[in-house]
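Fold this complex.
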Amino acid sequence: MSKKVLVIGEAREGSLRNVTFEAIAAANIVSDGGEVVGVLCGDGELKEMAQEMVYYGAARVITVSNPELKTYTSDGYAQAVHQVIEDESPEGIIMGHTAIGKDLTPKLASRLESGLISDATEVTAESGDIVFTRPIYSGKAFEKKKITDGLVFATIRPNNIPALNRDDSLTGAVSEKDVQISNIRTIIKEVLRKSSDGVDLSEAKVIVAGGRGVKSAEGFEPLEKLAEVLGGTVGASRGACDAGYCDYSLQIGQTGKVVTPDLYIACGISGAIQHLAGMSNSKVIVAVNKDPEANIFNVADYGIVGDLFDVIPKLTEEIKQMKVNA
Amino acid sequence: MNIYVLLKRTFDTEEKIAVNGGAIAEDGAEYIINPYDEYAVEEAINLRDAHGGEVTVVTIGEEDAEKQLRTALAMGADKAVLVNTEDDLEEGDQFTTVKILEAFFEDKEADIILAGNVAIDEASGQVGPRLAERLDMACVTTITKIDVDGSTVNIERDVEGDVEKVETSLPLLVTCQQGLNEPRYPSLPGIMKAKKKPLEELEIDDLDLDEDDVEAKTTTMEIFLPPAKEAGKVLEGEVDDQVKELVSLLKTEAKVL
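Structure:
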C-alpha cells in the first residue's frame, strides 16, 4: 500500500548531513510508490538545501524558517515539525538517528501517540509489512520490528542504508510554511566545539581508536595524524577514557557510541566484550596490538602484532605515499 | 526537592548473548542496573544531599527487578516503586512503558525526573523524552553536568562530542550520559538500611489502566545473532613489510582506501 512519508532533514554547519539522503532512500522503501516529502527547519535561506533533498529523491520539500529555529531546541523543533505533520497527515516519518533525531522523534511520537522504531540499520518491504532491522544489546544481536498500529515512524542509523544516487535532473516543488512557536523552555547559552573536524563518530567512514596501549593523552597524537590522512576521526575504548587519556565523548562500546564505519583501526585495544559490542559490525577492522593473544584479533580482518608507536606512524607515512602516487 | 529516577534492569555488560526459541536466552544471566540509569541514581542522591527532599526510584518489570531497586536504595535512594507487569503484559514497547509511567506520575508533584539516556539492551532512548512530553515537562537529554539553583537549572549536555550549555528551569526531566558522575558502590551499612526502606509494588490495575490502554504500537518479529566474524589475517615479517602489505590489502582486497 503506497504511503505518504515525511523525511525530517538535518543540516550541520550549513549543509545537509548525509544521513538525510539515507533517510530519503529509506522513506522510498516505506512509501512503496507513494510520495516522499522532505521537511527542513531552520532560520533563513533553506531553498538550496531543500533542492538538494529533491536531487536525492524527495518528491517535494517543505521548508520552515523561523528565528526560533536558528539552533535546535526540543520545544521549538517539536512544535514546528508537529505543525507540518498536522498539515500533511503523513502515514510514515523517517529521520536520522542522530543527536537531534534521538531527542526530537520520541517527543513527536509521544505527542502523536504513535509507535517509533529507533536506530534501524535496514528497511525492507516483506509481504505488505515494512520491516526494520535494528541492533540490540549494542549489536550483540539484532531484531526485526514492525509497527502494528498507525504511523510508520522510524529513525535510521547513519552509514547503513545507502542513499540514492544524486540526480540533478530531478524536479520537485519547494514550499515554505509558517509556524507558531512559543514557550521554549531551554535556552542554549553556548556550544563548545570539541569534535575537531565536525565528523561525528557515528557518521565517520574511518575511525582510528585508541585503548590503554596509547598510554597517555599525548599518545593519541599519532592516531590523530593517521585519522587525518584517512579523512577519519579518532575514537577510544573505555580503558583509555577511564585512564583520562581522552574525553568520554570519544568512547566506543556498550556504554558509549556504537559505530559502523567502513574502516576501523584499533590501536592498543585489547578487545573487551563491551568494546567489541560497539564496533564489531564495522565493515573492515584492523587491529594493532603488542599482545598476539589480544581478543581484538578475533574480530579483526587484518592484524599487526607490534608496538603501535612504531606501526602507526609508518602506516600514516605509507598511506600518504600511496595518496601522492595515486 | 521531589526527585524521581526511572530505572531499568538489564543484562550485565559482560554477558554474551544467545538466542533460544526466537528470544534472548536469559538462563543464568547476571543482571545489573542499566549503567546509564546508575548515573541517574547517583545524580539524584547528590541533588537530594545538596537541596534536601527525597529520591524515589521507579521501575517497570517483573518481580526480579526488586534486586536492582534494593541496590539503588543501598546506594542511598529513599523509596522504590516496582510496577509489576508480569501477569498483565505479554509484549510491551516504549509506548507501553510511557503510558504506565504517565499514569504513575499523574498525582506526583515531581520537581525533577532523571532517566538514563539509553538502556544498553533495547537501546531505543525513547522513554525519557516521551514521558517528558506526556507530562508537559521541559526535557534535556544526554546531560553531563547539572547545577540546580532555586528553580533555575544550568546543564551541560553532550551533543555528538560537543558540549552544549543549556539554561532551563524546574520541573524538568533529564536523561543522563556517561561522564556525569562516578556512581558509588553500595556500602555495607547502606545495604543493611536498604532492607528496611519502603518498596511499593503496584500493578497496572492500581494505576487505573488495563491491557488495552497500554497495548504496544510495535512488535518484534524475529531476533537473531549477527553472522560470526571469521578470524582475519595476522600479518608477518618486519614491521615495514607488514605496513606495506596492510596498505595493499586495504586497497585491493578490502577496497576501503
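Chain A touches chain B through 91 residues (CB under 8 Å).
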